[in-house]
């Protein structure tokens, strides 16, 4: 989800449950009861996600040259690349560095032209992050073309709106970030909205709830491609216990008690903290993306990945660019851990709560629709 749209509403967290929606544990945020997904429903969802063409599928994560969402882009690429089960590429109009929102700059691995030359039969899966330009003139036609060639298209968070712009949600069931549901319905009046599901699969088109749904839907793809044991092994390495579609849509609502968290951040615009994250080759892409995303959404800090090198390669194989030494004013240094990287957001929210208070941690959590 584009934070600038979110800020226009001054929205805050009403309550939440666990990231993958498998059980309602005690949480530093307000927990909410989450219904379990029946085993037969999960099995049917995984079956619907099976690779449409190749035993070893080809996956394109598409980004707009004017910017796509940080976690929506980096996390699915990393989960699927680390699985070793597919050929995964970040694809853009050109292979020049692209600044993501709200933080980090990456280098697309292939241009659209290069991808078409390498894979004339199209991708097996096309992953569409939320992008600044919902109706991107470069993304929309390419996504539509890939769908016509039988690629499964996956809209992460508000990426569903770009999927709708490509004409792929007409008459289909779908979901998106809780704040974007109304706009998605306006984009595609024939959409059939689905609540209480983290991700929805309907006839070759997949949509998800907010930013952090990128983790469970990516693991669901791993299960569809390589089987449950492969998914379970990778999930254990990442620090994830469950990746079903269980979700509690009603946990997210507008309340008055934390509106100040959003408004006061605007007041502090000219005096933001500088949060630096030292990085080097093989840094955990998942940990870094979640950390940079979280700190950049506080409206009290700006997150910088810093290195002695201008370009490094993360553990996912994706290049991180535009790096430099730490700025003169450094308020806080945050270390990026490779241990259980999917739990990075929990760690960052704890630090953010200590630094700025629980209202700000909740404010960040609601932006990424995190059920912590």
Provide structural commentary.
The chain has helices spanning 3-7, 39-48, 70-83, 112-118, 139-148, 159-165, 181-187, 214-226, 228-238, 259-267, 285-296, 344-356, 358-367, and strands at residues 58-62, 87-92, 98-99, 105-107, 110-111, 125-128, 152-155, 173-174, 192-193, 199-202, 205-208, 273-278, 301-306, 312-313, 319-321, 332-333. It is an alpha/beta fold and 372 residues long. It has a seven-stranded mixed sheet with strand order 5-2-1-6-7-11-10, sandwiched between helices. α3 (70-83) runs antiparallel to α11 and α11 runs parallel beside α12 (344-356). The radius of gyration is 19 Å and the shape is globular. The two termini are 18 Å apart.
